[in-house]
Amino acid sequence: MKRLYLFFFFVVTTLSFLNTFSSCGQSALPITSADTVILQVNFDKIIGEMDPVWAWWGYDEPNYTYMKDGQKLLTEISQLSPVPVNVRAHSLLVTDEGPRAALKWGSTNAYTEDEQGNPVYDWSIVDKIFDTYVERGMKPFAQIGFMPKALSSKPDPYRHHWKPGAKYEEIYRGWAYPPKDYEKWAELVFQWVRHCVDRYGKEEVESWCWELWNEPNIGYWQGTTEEYIKLYDYTADAVKRALPTAKIGGPETTGPGHPDAAKVLKQFLDHVTEGTNYVTGKQGSPLDFITFHAKGSPRLEDGVVVMDMGRQLRDIDKGFEIVASYPTLKDLPIIIGESDPEGCAACSEADYPHNAYRNGTMYSSYTAASFARKYQLADHYGVNFLGAVTWGFEFEDQAWFAGFRDMATNGVDKPVLNVFRMFGMMDGKRVQVLNGADNSDQLAYDAMSIRDHSVRGNLPDINALAAKSEDQLTIMVWNYHDRNEMAPASPISLDLKGLEPGKYLLEHFRIDKENSNAYELWKAMGSPQSPSAEQIHQLENAGQLDLLTSPQWIYAKEGSFQLDMALPRQGVSLIKLTRKP
Question: What family does the entry list (predicted)?
Answer without folding.
Answer: Belongs to the glycosyl hydrolase 39 family.
